[in-house]
Amino acid sequence: MTMIIYLFRIFIAIALLIFVYTAYQYYHNPQRKLRKAKRNQTFFLLDDRRNTKQNIQLVYKGCAFEGEKYVGTTEKSFDVVNINMIVRDPLELIGFTKDDLDYLEQEIHQSYPYAQVKWKHPINQLLENRRKDSSIN
């Protein structure tokens, strides 16, 4: 009978450890932090600088962006030289301004100073229209 009690205590301890481990993994999950930043409409950048094959994910003002990194040569080393940014849902761009895009580029350049940020459709059209309007005036 005492053996069954000890076994039961061991199973409870194992179940408790599994629960604590699962709660820790959930709390530290970067995808959860990304969703939380989108819900709260704050800025959050999710990136693994050591892994150039993993895309950059960021959220700003409730809008989710993703960027593909491309490695190339700089004057002294190999580094990320191009980042192609896309928006996941273009309808989330309502209310975005050129200043918001400049802020995002500044945040990206903090991690990748040699990178040229290229915006894909529909953001590139906004930037081209701005250039055309400024060249007309």
Sheet with most strands: 5 strands, mixed
Strand arrangement across the biggest beta sheet? 1-2-3-4-5
Annotation field: number of helices:
4
| Structural class by SSE content | alpha+beta
Total strand segments: 5
> Gap between N and C termini, in Å?
91 Å
Overall average residue pLDDT: 88
Radius of gyration: 22 Å
In what range is the share of β-strand residues?
15-25%
User: What is the overall silhouette?
Assistant: elongated
Kindly state the percentage of residues in helix.
40-55%
The number of domains is 1
SSE pattern? HHEEEEHEH
Sequence stretches where pLDDT stays below 50 over 5 or more residues: none
Report on this structure.
The protein is α+β, with helices and mostly antiparallel strands and 137 residues long. It has one domain (41-136). The protein is 47% helix and 24% strand. Strands 1-2-3-4-5 form a five-stranded mixed sheet, sandwiched between helices. Strand 3 (63-73) and strand 4 (78-87) form a beta hairpin. The chain starts with a helix and ends with a helix. The mean pLDDT is 88.
Short recap of the structure:
The chain has 137 residues and is α+β, with helices and mostly antiparallel strands.
List keywords for this structure.
five-stranded mixed β-sheet, 137 residues, 5 strands, alpha+beta
Strands, helices and their partners?
Layout: H1 2-27, H2 30-40, E1 44-46, E2 56-60, E3 63-73, E4 78-87, H3 98-111, E5 116-119, H4 123-136
Parallel strand pairs: 4-5
Antiparallel strand pairs: 1-2, 2-3, 3-4
